[in-house]
Design goal:
single chain, alpha+beta, Ubiquitin-like (UB roll), 4 domains, four-stranded antiparallel sheet, 14 helices
Length: 453
């Protein structure tokens, strides 16, 4: 589909190219894919001037390919961009990405690296490669043709070996679909700070967003566990109908994150900070937050001891947890839970009291009283705690997606959760085993573009 420079200028497409691609390595990667002459690439640091010049030159016929092909390439890289959507090829949408693709780290010379990869692909009789995008030193390459995942991995391994022979990073990896960029995500930090993340690869692990944002804070803002390690991060998608807890191990693509989404990240068991309120206002606010959480989470029900300003709530929900050991000495699966939340006279200046009223075998829940150790939630408590966050924490406790091994209220449950038998049992029922949680705490987050708003 052809388009003129004038039409692109009138519809804002040229300015959108400048916003998305700027005029550095990313822009040159796209022009390289178009066979744009290297000596005609504008020598300017102004992205607007860069792309107006390039588009005028293409419109005049400097290359065989036209402006429509340029927009199709950009729409393939940014499939969630609204201005570019009519230029997307079939199966180029976020959910229908023809694949696979290869990502090469530590790239300084895009053209030389791509030529090396294409040489290896030719030797292995692949149909061909296309330069996808470059981001924070990573080059993404699309594989042309119908290619199986195993073939793609063989190609990536061969490229990595060739790079290693040159003394370069050979840690090349594949993605079973054409990787793409999400042009912008807004992320709210634990102190209500807002950050804009741009050009995020769809293969980014969702949990890495938490690490990238928390690196913008001073060390004393990042809470630690009993062993002194930074706590893992929870990530929620913020929406009008209620927040949605995302799986930190899944990629942004797998979690369905789209351009312009707003996420909230916080160290596990913490919540946002708002202005303190007097007790009367806080009780009303707490009721609205708990009711709102219940309405947006199917199967989560509440009973309160008053209509307007309750001080006690009984929460009922389902989660794949464990009951105390039976006659065989082993914990047994439990799914239905009842938990009481009590707002004492010193609320909101002090944290709520949480008591598990049904049998529950958990490192941070007392077998005798059912009292819940809220850990960092109590230590870093703020008067404006969102009790929806507390409900989510209780839900995660019930499903063994949130627990603390270093200290707690049930030594027997701590030992079981740390054992190989316990970790296997927890994982089989959808929880997070200790070593997976520990891996997240020590895993270095992917390099992402972060700007405090």
């Amino acid at each position: 589909m052809a388009i003129s420079y004038r039409k692109m200028d009138d519809t804002g497409l040229v300015d959108e190219l400048a916003r998305l691609l700027e005029c550095g390595r990313q822009a040159r990667t796209v022009l390289y894919r178009l066979d744009y002459p290297e000596d005609r690439i504008p020598n300017t640091t102004n992205a607007g001037d860069f792309w107006h010049t390039v588009c005028r030159e293409i419109d005049k016929g400097i290359i065989k390919r036209d402006l429509g092909e340029l927009l199709t390439i950009v729409a393939d890289i940014y499939p969630g961009n609204e201005l570019m959507k009519e230029w997307r090829k079939p199966r180029s949408k976020q959910g229908e990405r023809a694949g696979p693709s290869i990502t090469i780290p530590g790239v300084e010379d895009v053209q030389a690296t791509f030529l090396l990869a294409r040489e290896v692909a030719d030797e292995m009789a692949f149909e061909g490669l296309e330069a996808g995008f470059t981001n924070e030193g990573e080059l993404c390459i699309y594989i042309i043709g119908d290619v199986e995942d195993g073939q793609a991995r063989d190609l990536a391994r061969a490229i990595g070996l060739r790079l290693g022979e040159q003394g370069r990073d050979g840690n090349v990896h594949t993605t079973p679909y054409r990787d793409y960029l999400i042009s912008k995500i807004i992320v709210e930090g634990p102190d209500q700070g807002r950050f804009e993340l741009t050009d995020i690869p769809s293969t980014t692990r969702t949990g890495d967003l938490g690490g990238a944002v928390m690196e913008e804070y001073d060390e004393d803002m990042v809470p630690t566990d009993g062993l002194g390690n930074a706590r893992p991060f929870t990530v929620d998608r913020v929406a009008e109908e209620g927040n949605e807890r995302l799986d930190p191990d899944k990629t942004l693509h797998e979690n369905g994150i789209e351009d312009g989404d707003t996420l909230h990240v916080a160290p596990e068991s913490t919540a946002g900070n708002l202005n303190p309120m007097i007790r009367k206002e806080a009780l009303v606010r707490a009721r609205l937050q708990i009711e709102g959480f219940a309405q947006s989470h199917k199967g989560f029900s509440i009973k309160a001891n008053a209509r307007q300003r309750p001080t006690k709530y009984l929460l009922s929900f389902s989660a794949p947890g464990w009951g105390p050991p039976g006659s065989n000495g082993k914990p047994y699966p439990v799914d239905n839970h009842k938990v009481e939340v009590i707002l004492l006279d010193d609320f909101p200046m002090k944290a709520p009291v949480v008591i598990w009223r049904t049998p529950f075998f958990h490192p941070n829940v007392s077998m005798d009283s059912g009292g819940v150790c809220l850990g960092i939630l109590s230590m870093a408590y703020r008067p404006a705690l969102d009790l929806g966050e507390l409900c989510q924490m209780i839900l995660d406790l019930g499903g063994y997606r949130n627990y603390e091994i270093a200290h707690g209220l049930n030594d027997e449950a701590r030992a079981w959760a740390f054992s190989l038998e316990g970790q296997k049992a927890i994982e089989e029922r959808g929880g997070f085993c200790f070593f997976r949680k520990l891996m997240h705490q020590h895993q270095k987050p992917r390099r992402l573009k972060v700007r405090r708003l």
